Amino acid sequence: MKTKTKKLLKTPSKINVFLGILALIAVTEFLVMQLIASIAHDWSVNFEALVDTILLTALCSPLLYGFIIQPFVKAHEAALNQIKMQAFTDPVTGLANRPMITQHL
Length: 105
Fold this sequence. Notes:
Oligomer: single chain
Helix content: over 70%
Structural class: mainly alpha
Number of helices: 3
Mean pLDDT: 85
Order of helices and strands: HHH
Largest sheet: none
Low-confidence stretches: none
């Protein structure tokens, strides 16, 4: 007999996460430095570093969440949903079991 189980989302490996973060920050830093270099300015080195840091943070934060953190969040939510389904349904029939019925009463 086959049991009905949902396939969990795979989370990326540690090396893939590390390489993804590294590539994202490197590309974003390159683009920020090109942007700063293209602007004619008489900024001090400290102010240029501050602008670089602010732009890098503002651009990388949403990208890091979207490409690195969100897959882990989705996998966690899928695992919780699967645990709830396994706790409250019969694995063979998929029907509600006693804890689920008593919870709804």
